[in-house]
Amino acid sequence: MEDFTPEELEQARILFARPATFVMGCAKIEQLPEPDLPEIAFAGRSNVGKSSLINGLVGMSKLARASNEPGRTREVNFFDLDGRLRLVDLPGYGWAKASKATVKKFQDLGRDYLRGRVTLKRVYLLIDARHGLKKVDDEALDALDLAAVSYQIVLTKADKLKKGEGEKMVAATLKAVAKRPAAYPAVALTSAEKGEGLPELRAEIMRTTGVSL
Q1: Where on the tree of life does the source sit, at the highest rank (predicted)?
Q2: Is residue 1, in this structure, part of any structural domain at all?
Q3: What is the CATH number of the domain that holds 95?
Q4: How many domains, the chain?
Q5: DSSP states along 106-142
Q6: pTM exceeds 0.90
């Protein structure tokens, strides 16, 4: 993760402490809201902790709804942060129970969003820090590279790791994406449960989107 000044961290804390609201869920590309605010999107396997991370960033427990049934996020969900920024939750992938037709439908929706969203500043691809990048993630990485959208790996559930394992996983992940054209050359190590890495991720998002207070 990059270095941020105390001022940047504090500004980001203030921004993400402001009101965050659910805007809408879109099952079709035609339903997307007008591209009138900068957006950052979160992608990842259906059990990687996207809802927990989004909730952790804004300091709310139930903004993004986590489900006990993986793969429930089958729409593109939009959240508004103080009328300045949108957080976008993309459909999860790696579902075991969904039919191939269902999977294709929602993966195509995610791809359409990635390709055509002029206000999308970056995608944060969430990966479970205990397991690292797996073959199932390759399709998502390929889709992001193909869409030429800047993306950054965010390792989740860092609190489940033993001491020193997090740094090793960050290094291994950086090496794995080094030759991918759209991958941003930094990896965030986070724990939504413990708050680890969230101040820096907030600052990263603020810097990336150019949003100011």
Answers
A1: Bacteria
A2: no
A3: 3.40.50.300
A4: 1
A5: HHHHHHHHHHH-TTEEEEEEEEETTT-S-HHHHHHHH
A6: yes
Strands 151-156 and 120-128 come out as parallel
Mean pLDDT by 10 residues, the chain (213 residues): 89 97 89 94 89 95 67 76 95 62 67 86 96 90 89 96 94 96 96 96 96 89
Look at residue 15 and give its three-state secondary structure. Answer: helix
Among residues 189, 188, 191, 132, the alpha carbon closest in space to that of 160 is found at: 191
d(CA 86, CA 210): 13
Assigned domain for 35 exists:
yes
Give the per-residue pLDDT at 61: 84
Residue 29 within any structural domain of the chain: yes
Structure tokens at 79: 């959240």
In a domain, residue 120? The reply is yes
DSSP state for residue 66 in the 8-state scheme: P
Q: Which residue has the tokens 């049934």?
A: 69
pLDDT at 103: 58
Side chain identity, residue 92: G
Please give the Cα distance from 43 to 19 (Å, whole number): 23
How far apart CA 126 and CA 42 sit, in angstroms, is 7
Residue range of the domain that includes 144: 6-209
The H or E element spanning position 78 is: strand 76-81
* Cα-based distances in Å from 157 to 52, 60, 126: 10, 18, 10
**Three-class SS of residue 83?**
coil
* C-beta neighbour count of 71 within 10 angstroms: 20
What burial class does residue 23 get, using C-beta atoms within 10 Å of its C-beta: 0-12 exposed, 13-18 middle, 19+ buried?
Answer: middle
